Amino acid sequence: MKDRITPILFALLAAVFYAVNVPISKILLEHVGPTTLAALLYLGAGIGIGAMSLFGGKNRTPSERLSGNDLPFVVGMIVLDIAAPIFLMVGIRYGSSANAALLGNFEIVATTVIALIIFKEAVSKRLWAAIALIVISSALLSLEGSESFHFSYGSLFVLSATVCWGFENNCTRNISSKSTYEIVILKGVFSGLGSLIIATLCGERLPRFSYTAASLLLGFVAYGLSIFLYVRAQNQLGAAKTSAYYAVAPFIGALFSFMFLHEQLSRRYAVSMIIMFAGSILVVMDTLLRSHSHEHDHLFTHTHDGVTHTHTITHTHRHNHYLSDEKHGHRHTLKELELGHSHG
How buried is 77 (Cβ within 10 angstroms: 0-12 exposed, 13-18 middle, 19+ buried)? Predict the structure, then answer.
């Protein structure tokens, strides 16, 4: 029982650690420039995971190490990870923390559409329905007020961040079999340094030590440690179940915003949250539902007029089931097995 609970706790902790990013960043942005904060968050992740790799990342096989063939995807990942957090920090600064947390779900839409267009991946009807609900909810969250149809600047920047991360997810998926330590360290250090250069060019200055340390620590927890726990959970639960548990992150982020920042829950926001929640449920269902077919050979022996006859029937059975830790079996009726079988 303990072996099942531990990876689930890892997945949920990964979601909680990432969820604290938005509300705490909202507070830090009062003292740190948005581009500088984006840089410090990624540097915190890179430095923190780099330190962890000294103790736990030494047993990498040669096949897990990044190679020259991975360079285009690594460069794309780093460039996109420079842009995305800058957009997010600007969006959080000028918009609501709770809105930014929920709008993070638009990353699902961006990732899926990009995978469809570029990598020609199939998209199920259930996932299309989820995308429609998430888009509707995002549109409602992005309106400036009930009497206005103007897009809020804060939401526009947050959505831009999710699109960047959608592209980044599709870059990272091509190197996902490689060392997680290497991937996180590279994206943390180089994306952080890239953002820091941009911050310097924009005239932003490093904040005093306490805010710098707090930003680095938040980056380690919300980006570095969250990814580390996610991968640990994924190794035991599998990608589908881990992502299903992780889907609670935007809603935890919104809850933290209401609890600690005392942001008001408007009627429009409540409706948007319900629609977003319905879309997220469909995403989880699509993630966990698996459809596949089995081919069985059935051997029948019977005696007719004193002669024993043996027949082999090949039966293909297609079914859907949700991923679980339990073994599952199938029952076949005699009528099913008789399909396609003739005896002369």
Answer: buried
Q: Which domain holds residue 326?
A: 296-338
Cα–Cα distance measured from residue 124 to residue 283, given in angstroms and rounded to the nearest whole number: 10
Examine the domain organization and report whether 108 and 154 are in the same domain: yes
Q: CA 169, 42, 102: angle at the middle one, nearest 5? A: 55
Please tell me whether residues 237 and 306 are part of one structural domain. Answer: no
Helix or strand holding residue 298 (H, E): strand 289-304
Burial of 267 (0-12, 13-18, 19+ CB in 10 A): exposed
The one-letter code for the residue type at 158 is V
Alpha carbons 309 and 231: distance in angstroms, whole number? 55
Q: Is residue 125 part of a domain?
A: yes
Per the structure, the count of domains in the chain is 2
Report the alpha-carbon distance of residue 174 to residue 162 in Å, rounded: 19
pLDDT digits over 268-303, tens only? 889 999 999 999 998 888 877 754 445 555 555 656
Tens-digit pLDDT profile for residues 102-152: 999 898 888 888 888 887 878 888 889 999 999 999 988 887 654 444 568
Cα 79 to chain center, whole Å? 19
What's the CA gap between 104 and 249, in Å, rounded? 9
pTM of this structure? 0.79
- The label of the residue with tokens 């706790």 reads 9
Nearest alpha-carbon partner for 196 in 325, 311, 43, 336: 43
